[in-house]
Amino acid sequence: MNVMTVGGYNAKIEYDPEIDMFRGDILGLNGGADFYGKTPKELRAEFKKSLAVFLEVCKEKGIEPRRNYSGKFNLRIPPELHERLAITAQAEGKSINTLVQEVLTQRVAA
User: Fold this and answer.
1) What is residue 110's three-state secondary structure?
2) Is residue 34 within 8 Å of 44, Cβ to Cβ?
3) How many CB atoms lie within 10 A of CB 97?
4) How confident is the model at residue 109 (pLDDT cuts 50, 70, 90)?
5) Where on the phi/psi map is residue 70: left (φ > 0), alpha (ψ -120 to 50), or beta?
6) pLDDT tens across 41-93, in order?
7) pTM to 2 decimal places
8) Which of 33, 36, 6, 42 is nearest to 22 (CA)?
9) Residue in 30, 89, 84 with CA at minimum distance from that of residue 58
10) Are residues 52 and 23 in the same domain?
11) Which domain, by its residues, includes 104?
């Protein structure tokens, strides 16, 4: 995954062959903010500019810049996987929620 971080904010970076530039999309915002650059140095500078503009607009409008997350989400999985998760969790003396949280934590930390 191509992620760039500036000031505690993360952006997904992709190459756009049509314009021969890299495009960044700042993640986890209450709105959209993107930026472009030809080099990593230019991309980082544009990230900072785009973020500053976004944060200023949020301040002017009284909007929280970061999206809030509840800590809850629904996950639909095949019944067979659900059964295997339940059995694995029971065997380890854990809830399914705890087991899945551990797996997800390992995955996003990688």
Assistant:
1) coil
2) no
3) 9
4) confident
5) alpha
6) 999 999 999 999 999 999 999 999 999 999 999 999 999 999 999 999 999 99
7) 0.78
8) 36
9) 30
10) yes
11) 79-109
